[in-house]
Write a structure and sequence with these properties.
Number of helices: 11
Order of helices and strands: HHHHHHHHHHH
Strand content: under 5%
Radius of gyration: 16 Å
Number of strands: 0
């Protein structure tokens, strides 16, 4: 395989990206980093790296187009440790805010190339496999599993899988078998994820 072909099969980052990347910003001490959730997102967008903002915006638009507000709240809550809070806003409003933050940030940049090749892989050919993995995660609540399945069916399997990985990371009773982890790794490979996307939940493998 020529080098150019190999490069086209790689995502722009070896780490997580898009909305699940944003979900990870909301850790226990996030309020010390920013005054508002929107400011927190803006602060994390790296200068000169438009792919990050484009990937977040792409995911957020897919969520808005595919899912009702309550389902969005379930996904954001499952994929984050602490917030964002939905007492004063809705899932749709918050997701739209994320889009607006990205649009504002992108407007300050010059010559941001569009996402192409591997960075636009939605995993549509692997929807059934992703749904099967979601449904097997019995440590997640039925509501979370339904929201993730809806994401796979009405948004993209790729986005659902990355959100699932965040939910696995933060679920209190999460436990993976070696076989489950192997299958997740396999899906990550066919979706061109970088080394550390699935590896982020390796600590959840059970010793039993």
């Amino acid at each position: 395989m020529e080098l150019g072909d190999d490069q086209r099969l790689q995502r722009f980052t070896e780490f997580d990206f898009g909305v699940p990347w944003v979900m990870a910003f909301f850790h226990q001490d996030w309020c010390y980093e920013a005054h508002t959730p929107a400011e927190l997102v803006a602060r994390h967008l790296p200068d000169g790296a438009g792919e990050y903002a484009l990937a977040v915006r792409r995911d957020a638009r897919a969520l808005l187009d595919g899912l009702p507000s309550r389902t969005l709240e379930v996904l954001w809550t499952a994929g984050s440790q602490y917030g964002p809070s939905f007492r004063q806003t809705t899932g749709a409003e918050w997701t739209r805010t994320v889009v607006d933050v990205c649009d504002t940030w992108l407007a300050t940049q010059t010559q941001v190339p569009p996402l192409t090749a591997a960075d636009t892989e939605d995993g549509l050919d692997h929807r059934d496999e992703v749904v099967a993995e979601i449904e097997a995660m019995r440590f997640l609540t039925a509501e979370v599993r339904r929201a993730l399945v809806d994401c796979a069916r009405h948004c993209t399997p790729d986005l659902a899988l990355r959100t699932l990985l965040r939910a696995i990371e933060y679920a209190p009773e999460a436990s993976l078998s070696e076989e489950q982890y192997r299958r997740l790794n396999g899906l990550g490979s066919v979706l061109h994820y970088g080394e550390f996307v699935v590896q982020n939940v390796e600590f959840r493998i059970s010793d039993e």
